[in-house]
Amino acid sequence: MATASATPADRFDAVPARAQVSLWSDAWRRLRRNRLAAVSAFYLAFVFAVAIISLVWTPYSTSHLGVVTPYGGPSGAHPLGGDQYGRDILSRLMEGARTSMTVGVGTQIVVLAVGITVGLLAGYFRGWFDTVVTLVINIFYGIPDLLVALILVFLIGQGSLGTIIFAIAVTRWMDMARLVRGQTLSIREREFVEAAKASGAKPRKIIFGHILPNALGPIIVQATIGVPSAILFEAFMSFLGLGIQPPTASWGSMAADGVNAIRISPHIVLAPSLALMITLMAFNFLGDGLRDALDPRQRR
Amino acid sequence: MLTRGTLTYIGQRLVLIAFTVLAVSSIVFLGIHRLPGDALFSERLRGQAYQLLLHHYGLDQPLLVQYQRFLGAMLHGDLGESLVNRGVKITPLVIRELSVSAEVGVVALFFTIVIGIILGTIAAMRQNSWLDYLLSSVSVVGYSMPNFVIASFLILFFAIWLGNVTGGSFQYELNWDGTYGTPGEIWLPAFALGFPYASFVARLTRASMLEVIRQDYIRTARAKGLTEQIVIIRHALRNSLIPVITILGPLVIGIITGGVVIENIFNIPGLGKEFAQSILSRDYNVVIGVFTMYAAMVGVANLLVDLAYTVIDPRIRY
Amino acid sequence: MTRSLWLRIVAPALTALMVASACGGGGGNGNTGNGGQLAANQTLTFPIFGDFGTLDPGMIDAETDSEIAQNLFDNLVIFDKNLKISPDIASSWDVSSDGLTYTFHLRSDVTFSNGDKLTSKDVLYSWNRAAALQGGYAGNLSPIVGYKTVSANTKSGASLESLLEAKDPSVTMSGLTAPDANTVVAKLSAPAGWWLAAIALESTTGAIVDVNAVKQNPDNWWTNPATLVGTGAYKATAYTPKQSIDFEAVPNWWGSPKPTIKKVHLDILQNVASGITSYEQGHYDVVGFGGYSNLPVDQVRRIQNTANEKSQLVLHPKVRSYWVSFNVTCDATRPAKGPFCGNTAAAKAARMAFILSVDKDAVVNVVCQNIVCKPITGGLIVKGLDGYLGDNQDPLSKFDAATAKQDLATAKAAGLDFSNLTYYYDSSNPINGPTALALQDQWNTNLGIKVNVQPRDHSPFIKARLKGSYVLSRDGWQADYNNPQDWYDNLFARVAGCPDANCTTGYNNDAFNTLLTKADTESGAQALTDYQSLGKMLEDDAVYIPLYYTVGAFLFKSYVKNAGTNNFFDNYWNTMAILKH
């Protein structure tokens, strides 16, 4: 972006006199200024807080059927109304936040662990390992992801949270691995890595001390942007009957159940759907903001 | 275009596809056969009839023998018989349903690309205006809500509300006669299927259009006195299509997986519905057959997309 | 045939009473028609929500298959619309005074849809084949002498076919003979008052198939319309698996009433809500036929509240009960154990605690809005059927949290352990999940006991339950025909099938077994009294927690004449017509 025009002297002086800042504080500054990303970050913090609170308290018990008239609309005591079995939707929405966040973030943790490890090793050591990894990645890309996840849940056994996280992670790790591998391949050619190698540093130190920190930016962006698709996956799986098993609530399963009652009580599907929509949009905007902020080529 | 190099490349890819299909279906086959219980057992079946059924399906053989039979049959294109709907042969079933899904999928892809390009173009031409932000948000909504919710609201609006309001003269008829869909039946499910991915296309289109707009030849065209619209459409758009091709692979896969849910909601007799249904009814033979079909389909789709690169951008060669 | 008094008068009266109370009039009949003028296009179109398991009467055991197949095949006798056993292929029959010999006189004008004439040899072929196949309802033929031999058969497909055609002794019941082309004689090994009802059971092992059609493809003859041959009023003309199936009325059909509806088209759909929307848009004439009357309760509610659709909705009780079973036998044959097993007072107190702590009305309200299911109050056998114990007669259907807590204290005092209990259910039926949650809620709230709920796939669930692996499990039964034998023999004792197939609770005592064996040989009022005593025994021993029986929901367009159903099956297509609309 063009800055406001300044005198030739300013332009001459601007570049060399720029204060030394690390990538991270630079990024932080840029992120703060991105209003959309900042709002998203606040909102997500709020959702996390709700999720944690739901562990100890919800307005009504989420497994108590019949506290509200089934299909009851919003009222004073029940601001979001009741679902088809008469459970309080607000309470279930809170528990759903916890479940959906666990699925989303949990999946990404597994993806990070596997993807980073595989990507770093393949990209740094190359050779037969890299060839095998690339082949495996290509094979996994050749299979439709949702179907693999469904089959895995089907084979392993119904919907415990761990099973679902594992099943989704299995279909998602390739993106991270490919990204990290690419990053590794390019970073390892840089001068400071050559220097480190020349001075006799062990591969472990190079990988974790030099390559990984420099690749961290894109990794964080990828991890953030990967959360929405994991949460949506769980919703699809719930719709097909292979997601989180009752009585645990997740936004996805609430939406899937609510779709059937859409003509008599649209509020049952609207509450979790809107929650999903806003939260996932927040993750997307935050991810975009992170990507812009961490892009070292930006000078603003 | 069909150089020796290209043919070799196609050959290699086909081998990879075959290998993937084989590996994947074997894994699913072996995985499924370790599961407890099966679709055949029913409350009323006494031991004898149950044994007879097992024998009919060859399920009383040791696992290795079953696997050999399965492989042998598959190489002849025979995917076996359904366990739940006895007597129904799987190969003709999945081929028929595949063609139905493909029909819907192609139309959905068309929607994705067209809507995405339109949204992206407008956003680029009105960069940073409220319209830009609005369109970007609308497309992100598509990707941030489960597609069954979007589909249900679409049905609520087009099939039900519209019909009520116009007394039945204008409404989407939620009915699929016959095997293949007529335009009147296909447009809404295809739209519901394709729209969520339009945001990816829109974003790419917007970014690449913004780049291209600044380039010299556009300025030259402007200088020549052509109106802005024609300038954009003729020159910028063509070049912006290339990045869209890069995400064609993930788009196709997204549409395939989205189809599982959309076909269910719209009662479309396609492969996605079959997949969901066979998993729910534990019809293992059909699950394996459908999954095998999907693996082959995705492999071929990816190959076609890669080949499409050579058409769009002649610089790419294999 | 001596049960006529009960069936002819009381059962239909009860049925009518129950139906009238279950819905605001309309009864089992969907409409009265408008004007009575027939439409030019006599095609009936409706959706079914799953493809057939099989249409081979020898193998059919699902309601969804039999509801369609009943229009394609006939039996020797049939239940008429008042559920009374009437002539069908057999124009009359005699039963010997000792109840051991049944002689059926067949009509001479019966033909298959491919033109073949039906004679007594076809009856022998069909019944021997059905017995040899050992499908789910092979037991309907079990009283016939020689059944034991045939039921040991291990052949199927083409090899079975050749044995049958050669009249090999291993697949021929010696008690079944055909003195001439129009007579069939069945000798029973012991009197069985329920047998006529069993062979009247539409489209199962009593139905007659054509050997000329079956032998063309012994494994899958029914998948091809050309070989899907029966004596029914309709025959298949086109079948696209998992998509649709078409039928056509058989020209010059021998039976009656002669079909008015000329064509029937079925779409095989998956999503019920969308199917109902299609119906509302006019693409279907009927919803709920074919055994798919378990429409989701939210749709039913909505339609009940929609002025111009209300009249199309018909609620009709199905003969299906649901309850919770305890593992009541502690012996080594059953792995489950648990606090509910054994004959001790403490075990019974434990069961009573769990039974009385469930508020059945609350469960029914939450699970089905008290619309598509109703609480059981008169024993497990559904109201309207023989063997029903009477309204509010079942002490186990009460809700009494205070007494429940006392019983629990008694049980705990005797050292019984209630930690780590799990209630298992079958996830294939959508009503089971919410029921499990409701039960969990009730036991938690009223007893303070946390019970886990675990869904299982259908077949592992059944297998494990039959092995006695579950302490607490969902249980249910749908009556096949109106006779308590159908319930007790299949569910509760070491008679005719237990323990390898049908005993879920392990309930077994000599008094019960003896009385059941006796009742099975009787008929009429004597049998009924004995069956009712058996029901009381189950109550006294607190063997189950009664929950609800289900009510089927149907949608009938007003222009479909005589669209309707009884407790057991849909109206036959040949009794219906499409009016001008």
Written description of the protein model:
- The complex is a heterotrimer of chains A (about 300), B (about 325) and C (about 575).
- Chain A is built from eleven helices and no strands.
- Chain A has helices spanning about 10-15, 25-35, 35-55, 90-125, 125-140, 145-155, 160-185, 190-200, 205-240, 250-260, 265-295.
- Chain A is elongated, with a radius of gyration of 23 Å.
- Chain B contains 13 helices and no strands.
- The relative contact order of chain B is 0.15.
- With about 575 residues, chain C is α+β, with helices and mostly antiparallel strands.
- At the A-C interface, loops of A face helix 9, helix 11 and helix 13 of C.
Helix share, percent of chain A = 55-70%
Strand content of chain C: 15-25%
**What is the radius of gyration of chain C computed over CA atoms, rounded to a whole number of angstroms?**
24 Å
Largest interface: B-C, 49 and 52 residues
Number of strands of chain C: 19
Q: What is the CATH topology assignment of the domain at 52-214 in chain C? A: Dipeptide-binding Protein, domain 1
Summarize the structure.
The complex is a heterotrimer of chains A (300), B (318) and C (581). Chain B has 13 helices and no strands.
Question: What would the keywords be for this entry?
Answer:
heterotrimer, B: 318 residues, mainly alpha, 13 helices, C: 581 residues, alpha+beta, Dipeptide-binding Protein, domain 1, 4-stranded mixed sheet, 19% strand, disordered N terminus
Produce the secondary structure layout.
The complex is a heterotrimer of chains A (300), B (318) and C (581).
Chain A: H1 8-14, H2 23-33, H3 35-53, H4 89-125, H5 127-141, H6 145-156, H7 161-187, H8 191-198, H9 203-239, H10 251-258, H11 267-294
Chain B: H1 4-33, H2 47-56, H3 63-75, H4 90-125, H5 130-144, H6 147-165, H7 183-194, H8 198-214, H9 216-223, H10 228-246, H11 248-265, H12 271-280, H13 284-312
Helix pairs in contact in B: 1-13, 4-5, 4-7, 4-8, 4-11, 4-13, 5-8, 6-7, 6-11, 7-11, 8-10, 10-13, 11-12, 11-13, 12-13
Chain C: H1 4-22, E1 43-48, H2 63-69, E2 77-79, E3 85-87, E4 90-95, E5 101-106, H3 120-133, H4 147-151, H5 157-165, E6 176-180, E7 183-187, H6 195-200, H7 211-214, E8 234-240, E9 244-249, E10 263-268, H8 272-280, E11 286-287, H9 297-304, E12 313-326, H10 345-356, H11 360-368, E13 373-375, H12 401-413, E14 421-426, H13 432-447, E15 451-456, H14 458-466, E16 472-478, H15 484-491, H16 510-521, H17 524-540, E17 544-556, E18 560-561, E19 577-578
Parallel strand pairs in C: 1-10, 14-15, 14-16
Antiparallel strand pairs in C: 2-3, 4-5, 5-7, 6-7, 8-9, 9-10, 11-17, 12-16, 12-17, 13-17, 18-19
Helix pairs in contact in C: 3-5, 10-12, 11-13, 16-17
